[in-house]
Amino acid sequence: MPWNLVFLGMLTDPILKLLDREKEHLLRNKVRWLDLPNGKRRFVAFHLVWRWYDNLRNDPCGVGEDRMLYYLQRCIDEEQLEPNDAIVRYVSLSVEMYEEDGVDVLDTGIELKVAQDGMAKWRARKRK
Length: 128
Hints:
Elements: H1 3-26, E1 29-36, E2 39-46, H2 47-58, H3 65-78, H4 83-100, H5 110-127
Antiparallel strand pairs: 1-2
C-alpha cells in the first residue's frame, strides 16, 4: 500500500473524532444579549448560528453591526417572530444573499477578490 494512503488512514480516525466533537459543539445552545433599536433582547441559538452571525458581523464588506441589528429588529417586528427564531432566519437569509452575489463570507481575501473581479470586468469592456 502506498505510504500516502497509510498516512491518510492514520489520520482518518482522529479527524472523524474531531468532526464529531465539532458537530456536538455547534449544536449546543448559547445565550447572547443584543442591543436592538427597540432595546436589549436575549437570544438563544446554536453555536453554529452565532458563528455565522460573527462571520457576517466581521465581514469587511458587510453592512456593519448597527445595520444588522436594525434588520434583525425588522425581522422580529414584520414577520412577528420570536427573537430566537428571528436570529436564525436573519443569519440564514443573509448568508443566502451573500452566496447569490457570489461572495464567500468565510473568504478572508474579499478585498482582493473584489479588485480582481473589477479588473476582469474592465479588461472585458476594453476588449470590446
